[in-house]
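Illustration: Nitrate ABC transporter, inner membrane subunit.
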Amino acid sequence: MTPAAQLGWRTGLISLVIFGCLLLVWHLATAPGQSVASAGAGAASAATSAAEDEYAKLMGKGSSSPVKTSGFPGLAQMGQTIRKELAHPFYDNGPNDKGIGIQLGYSLARVGLGFAIAAVVAIPLGFLLGMSPLMQRALNPFIQILKPISPLAWMPLALYTIKDSSISGIFVIFICSVWPMLMNTAFGVASVRRDWLNAAKTLEVKPLRKAFLVILPAAAPTILTGMRISMGIAWLVIVAAEMLVGGTGIGYYVWNEWNNLSLTSVIFAILLIGVTGMLLDLVFARLQKLVTYTE
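Result:
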């Protein structure tokens, strides 16, 4: 077995042990007590549970829904919720009761569209700033003023002007994605070795051909780094944005399930957000590896 393979096995084993320890701590922390007091409170707890089952029915959920009764949910409740959500991820019973697959799809679509628009704007503009010190100095004050503004601060203006909550969410994703891509593209283009640019100039390569065949491959790793950072920020912001605008999306799902007192569904959505974010980051890490070169 090669050293790299051995390292991979050890890393995976340590990760599994840590994961098992976390589950054990969770189980011990949420295990029901066997004290006399807790037994005496059983009748009251049963009455509360019946009332909450009735509330769950009114909210369009079955009486067997794992509605939080008291304390933090245990692993059995989480397993029940995960099994139920993954069994029918694309059901649609109306505006406030959609499957987790549909909600996740809405969020991914908003992030993908806002991110794509940001790439169309940021990468050409970054090329311009990287190739022209004059334009970089002229636009730098505006960038430095706009860049620190929180994306969510734009939400009231977006809702007022666009008057559509879904498009406003896409606009917020665009705003938060554009700056890392713009700055990294400008830095990558400006950092291209002068030897390569001088060689292209000596060979009388036309500007457009030089941009695509010399500058773009040289700056691609830095550009992909900016795109990877932008995607991470966009996935962070979409949850908060959807909590504000409501309607659909994984952020709205979290807020809606909290209003339904379904803490297990909230935890399930949080785990799903984390796994999805990890997969998105892995995609960009793989793309970054493809364009990375050694001199």
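Reading the tokens back as a structure: The first helix runs from residue 3 to 30.
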